[in-house]
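Hi U.,

Before I forget, here's the chain from the pilot set. I'm dumping it here mostly so it's searchable later in email.
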Amino acid sequence: MEKVFERLMYASRWIMAPIYLGLSLILFALGVKFFQEIFHLLPNIFKIGEVDLVLLTLSLIDITLVGGLIVMVMFSGYENFVSQLDVGEDNDKLSWLGKMDAGSLKNKVAASIVAISSIHLLKVFMNAENISNDKIMWYLLIHITFVLSAFAMGYLDKITRTGK
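Structure:
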């Protein structure tokens, strides 16, 4: 009975596979949104102000960072928790594929969240005249929380890896 239970529990990791595949649909949606923003910009390129162009650029960078985060979580999560990816050894293989454990993934996700939060905070500051001070304060506090959390996770990971 115990053996059956253990095999069933081990096989249940495959439940995550469609979830990782679902992330690719979100990645596709982000790509559509990215190019939708580009296509909205092109006809108005000479009408748009500098601040609005910078805000749009920051939004596109934000979408790009989120897309990279999705790719990282999708591939590393699949490799760490479901099965190894067999993509061959050609030049198209990502250099970090198969080298990122769950701890490294956690730290990279935290760093990505801080980067995304930084871009969002920069967008808030660029549009500060239209945002109340208390909302700006909350954005800043949330960002600081992300930064401190990422730092703490990295520090704890360093402590556990070195055994100090």
